[in-house]
From TrEMBL:
One of its GO terms (molecular function) is DNA binding. Keywords: DNA-directed RNA polymerase, Transcription. This is RNA polymerase Rpb6. GO terms for cellular component: DNA-directed RNA polymerase complex. It holds the Pfam family RNA_pol_Rpb6. GO terms for biological process: DNA-templated transcription.
Length: 108
């Protein structure tokens, strides 16, 4: 359903060596900003994808019984709940050099 999960991305919290995070940039704070911006992108993409899939089930005259009995909708929601959190995906992508970033102040 979603292409955000990779085989190496953990689905639960992982203890990280902080020194691994600043290897690429030389600055832990810059690395955290890059990771957080990427996590926001991933979260927004997942949210749009989920809303798109759930909107297929919405109708203008839903009654209460139809809302609680829609199994496909529940399965889609459960699938997204099982996916790794956007922050975990972003950290994994950053550590495996799958994130493009640039710092204009360093380039000048």
């Amino acid at each position: 359903m979603s292409n955000t999960k990779t085989s190496t991305t953990p689905t639960s919290t992982v203890t990280r060596d902080v020194r691994q995070l600043d290897k690429e940039t030389g600055n832990i704070y810059e690395s955290i900003v890059i990771i957080s911006k990427r996590a926001n992108q991933i979260a927004n993409n997942m949210k749009e994808e989920l809303h798109g899939k759930l909107s297929e089930f919405s109708s203008s005259n839903d009654n209460l019984e139809e809302i609680f009995e829609n199994r496909e909708q529940i399965e889609i929601s459960k699938h997204y709940e099982r996916l790794p959190k956007p922050t975990l995906v972003a950290v994994d992508e950053f550590l495996h050099k799958k994130v493009y970033y640039r710092n204009p102040s360093k380039e000048a």
